[in-house]
Design goal:
This protein is mostly helical and 70 residues long. It is built from four helices and no strands.
């Protein structure tokens, strides 16, 4: 797994951490570190969407110990 993605587990990541993980994920999916000019817009949009979805997930995630207390 990518280092940036592993870093998010069990931490309080900032937006830059989430963006880095999203970039790593999209690079893996696209199979490219740097997309061509023709694919740049789609690549950048995917990074933003993955980062936004990841941030929503992390904001809503309930840690196991916190869930047991409810």
């Amino acid at each position: 797994m990518c280092r940036s993605i592993v870093t998010l587990r069990g931490t309080e990541p900032g937006r830059s951490d989430i963006d880095a993980a999203a970039l790593q994920f999209v690079r893996k999916i696209a199979g490219s570190r740097k997309p061509s000019q023709a694919n740049l817009e789609a690549f950048e949009r995917a990074v933003r969407e993955v980062a936004d979805a990841s941030e929503r997930l992390l904001d809503a995630w309930v840690a196991p110990h916190a869930a047991a207390a409810h």
